[in-house]
Amino acid sequence: MDFSAFKHSFNPSQARTPNSPAVILFSGGLDSTTILALAKQLGYRCYTLSVHYGQKHLSELDAAKKIAQSFGVERHEVIHLDLARFGGSALTDQALRVPTAGDPKTTAIPITYVPARNTIMLSMALAWAESLGSIDVFYGANAVDYSGYPDCRPEYVKSFETMANLATKVGVESNDDHQRFRIHAPIISMSKAEIIQLGQSLGIDYSQTVSCYQANTEGKACGVCESCQLRKAGFKEAGVADPTRYQL
Fold first, then answer.
1. Band of the pLDDT at 178, cuts 50, 70, 90?
2. For residue 12, is pLDDT > 80?
3. Range of the domain at 160
4. Measured by CB atoms within 10 angstroms of the end CB, which terminus of the chain is less buried, N or C?
């Protein structure tokens, strides 16, 4: 994918003046790394926020720290928030198994959905952005190759942005739409293959990213969970060699 064409479709007027600060929700996965690279390319000073929310493995947070350092972000923060205490998700509850290839498909919201996770994370990103004097938050929501999560839909992003401008000093005091909060989800309408092609044009080394729902302590992917399946299919469709480190 040609970055210049993508930048035009993204509408650069949404971006602030060069070197404006932005907070990027950053998991260390394929999508959020693409978002970080994109924000850097658009001229933002990047502040990355990762969340230790009680997920079963921490290798994604290790990856996030290393990738953030390699991108030279202004600051990388890891917030500890124990959503595992509430349970309700296979990503946090030890009693629930992560679905793998061959499991029956369902149209219901999958068991890997973490209740209200993106709302909580975006709220923390919003708080940090406001304290930094930033009015831009990026996150890697995707409504094409995704698992049916309700907090990855365009209408959710729009609604959160509306809330952000109702709930913040900047949102209330500004009469200029260009100086109000924007929640950027620039890959929301892209397929996984298109995201990978965009990342290729931005020079991303995807071998460093961890997307697997049950990666081991070395960050190697299981290869059979839904996230791994989507990632594998994306590289194949993009015509790009899959650099993911698998356990088998």
1. confident
2. no
3. 17-205
4. C
Residues contacting 103, CB < 8 A, separation 6+ = none
Q: Is residue 222 part of a domain?
A: no
Tokens 């947070």, residue? 61
Residues 32, 42: Cα–Cα separation, whole Å: 15
Half-sphere exposure of 151 (CA within 13 A, CB side): 17
CA-nearest of 157, 65, 60 to 118 is 157
- The rounded distance, in Å, linking the Cα atoms of 20 and 43 is 7
**Measured distance CA(58)–CA(54) in Å, rounded:** 9
The CATH number given to whatever domain includes residue 178 is 3.40.50.620
Question: Are 47 and 21 spatial neighbours (Cβ–Cβ below 8 Å)?
Answer: yes
194 pLDDT band, cuts 50/70/90, is very high
Identity of the amino acid at 200: Q
pLDDT of residue 13: 45
